Fold this protein.
Amino acid sequence: MTEAAFTQRVFSGIQPSGGLTLGNYLGALKRFVEMQDEGGYETIYCIVDMHAITAKLLDPATLAQNTRELCAGFIAAGIDPSRSILFNQSQVAEHAQLAWIFNCIARLGWMQRMTQFKDKAGKNAQNESLGLFAYPALMAADILAYHATHVPVGEDQKQHLELTRDIAAKFNNDYGVEFFPMTEPVIEGAATRVMSLRDGSKKMSKSDPSDMSRINLTDDADAIAQKIRKARTDPEPLPSEAKGLEERPEARNLVNIYAALADMSVDQVLAEMGGQQFSEFKPRLADLAVARMSPISTEMSRLMEDPAEIDRILAGGAERARAVAAPIVKRTYEIVGMVGS
Ligand code: TYM
């Protein structure tokens, strides 16, 4: 069976495992909005609540609250639930159904190579959940249940997207079909890997124990200004060309953040700011971050006043998502030989 050209379809997801960080916003959410607004794609965005319990079980009320808050964050940042499909993963059972098939396609050796599992599990791998280990197969199912052709993500998800292609290729090859597309990762922009404000060699992450290491979408103007003022830097002024940032991870991180927030290239930023000391540059960065982020967090709080409306949006999105995924997963089960009506 040969499928004709695949529809141009974007799928991506964010875990409701904590609040949104500036890394999530610049590496993912801001790009989600741009791809929605560009047109030319069907856009599907998912709050991946099933992924959020793989590292540790969350308190049930916290998981529900995080899910609604993340939905509010998507909308506040510019996702329009009438133009994009916006929903939470657990409401569409096809994700888990396809993940089972992919658990039987993926090889143990492939999973053991996943650096994110190794980083998260550390020396304690024997005590991690089976779900954390199998997680990339569920992620492949998230994407391929929609035959998504494009997946916007930050740099840290690149290996998982390579695995998604390996799973699609092995399925197609084992069953002699051309059923699943080879999904393209979309890793673009000046801030595909936003680093910790305290350590330029570590990714900015919601799980970092130090709140000073990250900017949360819900931080107020004072907190943002303080975190940027205290961000680690070096004593040199800013260079006038990108090459001058090569051995300066902390300086590079702040310039990348500025460029992404201002929709400028790194070269443009440095052409304008080269020669400045951090004492000048940091307040400008803080002002820009506050100007970009505070309208989002204000709108988020407003939306959170009506959680029933958020639940309605998620339910409506789930219904539309199911309409896309159900025939694809049904066909997958037929290809595999599962008897159905
Ligand atoms: P998660 O929830 O860890 O992160 C969500 C998105 O934010 C990006 N990101 C960053 N980008 C730049 N700099 C950072 N410091 C930074 N931190 C996070 C991530 O790359 C991601 O794009 N496995 C995924 C969720 C997922 C998914 C999917 C994504 C599940 N199924 C299907 C795409 C398609 C994750 O844990 O992302």
Remarks:
- The chain has two domains: 9-192+305-336, 211-302.
- The pocket of tryptophanyl-5'AMP is lined by residues 11-15, 23-24, 27-28, 48, 51, 139, 142-143, 151, 153-154, 156-157, 160, 192-194, 203-204 (CB under 6 Å).
